[in-house]
Fold this protein.
Amino acid sequence: MKSVSVFLSFAAFILFSIFFISSQSDFEIGESSVILCDSSKENCGVEYSVEGEFSIFEVKKSGSFIVIDDAPYFSLAEGSFFKLNGNGEISEAFIIASEESSYAFGENFYKLSEGQMLEFKEGRIKIMEKGLTEGESFNFEYFPKGGDSLIVESSNLISIEFDEEGRAIFSGNFLLGDDTIKGLDEGIGKVSISDSGQIIKIWENTKAKIQNIEHISKESLNIYYDSLFDSQEHKNENYFSYSGENIFAGGNGFSFKLLENNPVFPEMEFEKKIFGSDEIKKSDFVVELLGGSLQISEKESKMIIDSEGDFNLKDGMVNILSRDGSILNSISKENNDFAQDLILNKYYVLENSKIEYKGVPVKFNTGPWENTIEIAKNYNYDKRNAIREDLNKKYGVRPRDFHGFVNDGREEQIARKIYEAVESANKNKHDIKITSSELYTFAMLEGLSADYSFLDEKSDINYYNNPNAPVNSLEDVGIDFLGHPGERSRLESDRFIPRDLGFVGSESDITLEYGTPIYPGEFTNLGEALKGVAGVLAQRKYAFTKDFIEVYGEEEFNKLDDDERVFWTAVYYNFGEGSSRAELKGEEYYIQKDDKKIKFQGSGREFFSPLEKERTASDIYNVKNNAMLKVATNELIKDMKYFSFF
């Protein structure tokens, strides 16, 4: 690449040659002198005219040149023009290059090839080339005032404007040296260039590949190249710093991807397995900033990440999602790849295909059910007992411990079907999300863990003898209404359960203690049964969410902690939507029992409180007891981490 100093020396030599031929200007306009001529130094091919306060110079003969205030504009083709204001400043110009030549505007230079065009208007420059067919591109050379020249290549118009400090802002879809700039969603990319020619800002809705690190920015992002970068000085901005052997990044609304041969981690490679096959593909490491910050460094071929706040890391196979310390556990399938969301709090190590959290290894590039089995195998009973005591004091009920159903290799399918059922229910059209720990809590407490249930080896039909045996909806998972065509249709239409759910229902002559008829049935296997429980759980969470927002408002709903959400979801699950809604609202309602109607007064949100036998009606007490038991058990499962790894 040529340096600016070389180009300026060349321009100065040409300018000296001009003045050697003619030391007198053709025109004096304001404070500028203007010289007109053509390449043969004979008849000038430039016409001069006046339009109000403006002086117009139009090129009528290719090969002409104009010198304005000592700045030469050579090789002008017919159709080029310059418009000067009363002070002799260029207010507008249109240049068509008759052959390769360079043009100065401000302190920057642009070298165009024959037929390329440059428009200067209202301080903005546009560079283009007509007649390009699809797939073709053109390139020109850009000389920033303080650095080496850059080749700019594009198949479309390039627009250049300048900020208050005179730095160039490029807009378009183009290559800038070795860097690639594109707009998101088929839009236009936009970056700011420093005087030395480095990209220092990526504007909103732009994807920019810089030094083999790809940035996708929905919000504007400042780029730094400081080996002594101090992230504390940049807390109130979106930032990314190429800092020697480190990466610093922070903010919200942007992500970056480490591509092969990036300058910070050139040796890093990740692989991903395609779900359901033995195929392995390479994948890139992507970090999405969600309001947090992190420092990534390399030590002994390990990627060390120190972080705060919210972010999401993806390697094409596994997502590691930190959401301000809360626990998120979900799975998704995209493009036939399997993704797993984990939670990350502060410090961890990624090395090839392993992830470690504070020195504890967690399996990577595997299904989350394998981690569940591994963690449950190494269960800490002393820790469990201490947590149970704390939860008993907090909620007034002792949580149940169900890790024994997922701590054996034979039980991997139980864990796997929990995750798959959560994925199924979370596809609902209301965007209601349940977690794996919630589903496991509800399924076990609704019957799967009971004596002589499907998961009890004493049962005639049990999972350990026949994992694919049918599951009784009433006795094994506590669902007594799915056989009713109206209920099933409601759940299917909102996509809480799939339309091909393996379930055969029947109307029973059994009635609940309140006199309500039930419609149980059989699921074809455990996986289908868990999809049914997950769908009902998600639908009840949706019903509670809708009612709560209606009564207390969305802002108040967003303040709810997980415990109260699980509590009310459990109330709706066990008590029915009508009575639960009245209890939530603090309204009067009636329950039919033994041919009598019993009136109750709902207590509103106060119903969610540590369990005390204050209310004399046993059924209301049981509803609260069951709900609190689910809250406490879900908390124990989360704290013991076999369905919530961090």
The chain has eleven helices and 41 strands. Confidence is low (pLDDT under 50) at residues 1-23, 272-277, 323-365, 614-618.
